[in-house]
Amino acid sequence: MNITVGVSHTVVNKTPETNFNSEYS
Fold this sequence. Notes:
Elements: H1 3-13, H2 17-24
């Protein structure tokens, strides 16, 4: 898992951590 990509994805889409986990689980 690439943390940089994950963080950028979350910030750009302004989504909650639940969506982050769904994308990168």
